[in-house]
Each structure stands twice: as C-alpha cells, then as structure tokens.
Write a structure and sequence with these properties.
By secondary structure, the chain is α/β, with parallel strands linked by helices. The chain has one domain (3-264): 3-Layer(aba) Sandwich (Rossmann fold), CATH 3.40.50. It is built from 8 helices and 11 strands. It has helices spanning 3-6, 23-32, 42-47, 74-83, 85-93, 103-111, 172-180, 251-264; strands at residues 11-16, 36-41, 57-60, 97-101, 124-127, 135-143, 156-163, 167-170, 184-189, 210-214, 220-223. It has a 9-stranded mixed beta sheet. Helix 4 (74-83) packs across helix 6. It is globular and about 50 Å long. The relative contact order is 0.16.
Amino acid sequence: MPQSHSRKTVQAVVLRSAGTNCDVETAYALKKAGAATKRVHINRLIEKPGRLARYHILALPGGFSYGDDIASGKLLANELRCLLDESLRTFVADGKLIIGICNGFQVLAKSGLLPGFRGNKAKTTLTTNDSNRFEDRWVRLKAEETNCVFVQPGRDMELPVAHGEGKFVAEAETLADLERRKQVVVRYVGPNGKQGAGYPWNPNGSMRDIAGICDPTGRIFGLMPHPERHIEATRHPQWTRHPGAAEGDGLAVFRNAVEFARANLLS
C-alpha cells in the first residue's frame, strides 16, 4: 500500500498467539468495516514493540491463547503486561482503540487494561460458568448509557457466545465503581429485554448480567459475546424470519471503531 494512501486509511492489527482461533473472522470484520487490517503474532510485537505505533485499532480476538493454561487468557495477559507495557501505555495515551473479544476480554481483564483504573491492576476477572460447562449459544444484549466508542447506547444486539470461563466477577466496591463511572457497556437480557432473566439468557452467571465493560475513556472495550460472528445477517440462526436485515448486529461494533478512528486519529 502506498504511504500516501495509508495515511488516509484506518490501520487495524489483530493480535494472535498459539491457540487463537478467531483472528481471521475478526480481521474480516474490521476489513468489512473499512480498516486496513493485519494479523500479527505476539512474538513479532515482542521483537519490535514499536510496530504497534503503526496502528489505530488493536483487536485481541477469541480462542484459547496458550491453551488457557493456568487460567483463560492469563499467559497472554502476562506477556502484554510484562513485555509490551510501555508500548501499550503509549498506544492508549495516543487516543487509540483496543477491543478484546471472549479470550481477548479475559486478557484485558487479567492484564489490568480493563477496567483501567487504580494503576492498571486487575480488578475483575472472568471465571468458570455457573453451568460448569462450555456454553455455545446465542444471547441478547442491551447497551447501557456509556461513552464507549464501540457501541451506541440503547442498542439491542443478538450475538453468539462460546466459552467455558465467561462469568464476570468483581468485588462489590469495583462493581459500584463500574456502575458509577458508567463503564458497564452491555448486559445480558431475556427475550423481553429485561435484566435478571437468569440462565440461559445470562449464559454464565455474570454478576449484574455484565457481558462487557469499557475503560473510563470508552476506547478500551471487552466483551464475552462474539460480534465478529454476526457480521452477515445470514449468520443468525433465524435469519429467514428477518429477510430485510442488511447486516448482522456485530458489524456496527467494528464500524463505530473505524469511524471514530477515521475522525479522530487520521491527520
């Protein structure tokens, strides 16, 4: 790509490691949303951390990084925290965007990038589902009033989940801070759009039905459901009942990020 063109194009990087398995779908979603996208192995960034500065959006996709040894996302989180901390701090300070999906959300939480206060220490985690089994199903989400770049407040979405450790937990003080700071972005809701519907609508038993949170700036976002798996309308299992749908609910998440980056990060 010529340099003159790249200055006008939002650049996104999808970070992968051993065990990552949603990087291709995530790259497809970002490309469809209008970003020039590359899939990059974590080792390449560790070799040259300065490479991260080329990009406007960093995506941590789903999968089972390093086989989820120790705990889901823990080893990749340690790599980010110990080997790429300075580059990530600069990336965030420059107003750039980070999204973590499923395993990526686990990484953001365990690295301390989310919820992003009190010295970037881990204050939340994702743990074993209440059902004690892997949950692979579609869920309904309601977006809260937040400043999250990725999701419009009040938006309803239907997205699939696929995880064994997706239960969002935090101490009471942290939960209160998240609510007070309006960092809870999406919650699991029942078929009537209301919270508290229980299993299977909340597929993992997450506290306060929390499915995704952001940092105080709204530019770092993590969620357990997979927006990259509902880019095309026909991906929904009941798509024939909604023949007029032009696109899947997940595409807006990536388009919002690309549009924000285009408006605020391109000179």
